[in-house]
Amino acid sequence: MKTQIEHARAGIVTPQMTAVARNEQVSEDYIRQMVAAGKVVIPWNHNRKPARIAGIGKGLATKVNASIGTSSDIVDYAAEVQKARAAQEAGADTLMELSVGGDLDRVRREVINAVDLPVGNVPLYQAFCEAARKYGDPNKLDEELLFDLIEQQCSDGMAFMAVHCGINLYTIERLRKQGYRYGGLVSKGGVSMVAWMLANNRENPLYAQFDRVVAILKKYDTVLSLGNGLRAGAIHDSSDRAQIQELLINCELAELGREMGCQMLVEGPGHVPLDEVEGNIRLQKRMSGDAPYYMLGPIACDVAPGYDHITAAIGAAQSSRFGADLICYITPAEHLALPNEQDVITGVKAAKVAAYIGDMNKYPERGRERDKLMSKARRDLDWQKQFELALFPEDARAIRASRTPEDEATCTMCGDFCASRGAGALFAGDLRGDKV
Ligand code: SF4
Asked: Is 413 in the pocket of ligand 1 (CB under 6 A)?
């Protein structure tokens, strides 16, 4: 079976491309051309057709990913299913199932069956868990087991897969010569793969046998998301040589995979100060030939545990503005604990707001009509209209309903001193015109 990219190159518009064109209100031929060029990807899988299709890439709305999954400390299958459903309900466009505790086949399959979204994962997690269980040492991971697991997980319906192909012996050399990392290594898959390479004195099989990885994912049309195992986990490590070395290799691999007919995503950092976000994105786009960029926020400062959904949303608004295509949410539990259902909901909503703000600035030519209408509704104290236009109407309704004002036209913020009511009385409709 052909992949989306192979169909696009043959001039065929698939039902998935039609769905993306309809969702984004662009032409089918635009989507076909972008998919053919590798500038847009559509995560899906021949074995599982997600009911909700998300196009990711150039000219499309910034998408939001939510990640859930068990840990070695907390294994509750029902809770993970509930978190997955809550993420979908809150507005996530894609979901990553990142379990590392309990029966990993079971949780993956239950989560996939619970949602309509495209689901992705990180195959290295299960590979190292299985090696630890079987041999008592994750560094005894057998390369064949790793490739078998990738195939099995694709076969289960993974629409995209984060695979750490870009960590190789050369990137480790860069890290050693650099001689510092304030935040160390913060990718579970990344640090496990580095440990395996050092223990076995071998090249990363996902890099050495990249064509084999591509061949497996192509069979299912799973999008290959090039994992960022050396991403900075500290503001002071951002854009260091080790991270940029891995990015460079990932961009090379994105081009290679695309030529082989596989849909490719490149993953980005991590922790990044705001003044480095634009440069990071321009570098990735330039080096990869505009491959869609999947950024983990980024988290824009290191000192706000408990509020990292906000630090990440600030970074995500900036990264979306400068061209990031898919944003991974961060929850308030980041750096502190396994997220619960409420953390997941809060994280998705923060990232959705960030993506919306980013898109306002990424695509200024599309206008800001919704914001204009909201401003008018506020000015006119038209509460129903405000709720209709709100990104999260139920939350807005609930807050207002919890504090009822004396005068229902106003709210309890200013009460008798409501400025909107006062201005309406003063100008009696004179301010209702539109700018020409
Ligand atoms: S009371 Fe204050 S906050 Fe509420 S609608 Fe009037 S001006 Fe706005």
From this structure: yes
Q: What CATH number is attached to the domain comprising 68? A: 3.20.20.540
380 touches 424 (CB < 8 A): yes
Number of domains comprising the chain? 2
| Whether the Cβ atoms of residue 226 and residue 171 lie closer than 8 Å to each other | no
pLDDT of residue 170: 93
Q: Whose CA is nearest to atom 4 of ligand 1?
A: 411
Same domain, 80 and 170: yes
Cα 401 to ligand 1 centre (Å)? 15
Beta-carbon contacts of 318 under 8 Å, excluding residues fewer than 6 positions away, are 274, 277, 278, 300, 358
Distance 387 CA to ligand 1 centre (A): 15
* Residues 214, 350 share a domain: yes
pLDDT tens-digit series, residues 200-246: 999 999 999 999 999 999 999 999 999 999 999 999 999 999 999 99
- Ligand 1: which of 400, 410, 417, 421 to mutate, judged by most atoms within 8 Å of the beta carbon? 410
How far apart (Å, rounded) are the C-alpha atoms in residues 276 and 243? 13
- Select from 365, 400, 419 the last residue of a domain: 365
**How far away, in angstroms, is 431 Cα from ligand 1 center?**
17
* Token pair of 8 as six digits: 């696009």
355, 373: one domain: no
Same domain, 352 and 376: no
Pair 238, 137 in one domain:
yes
Q: Is the CB of 379 under 6 A from ligand 1?
A: no
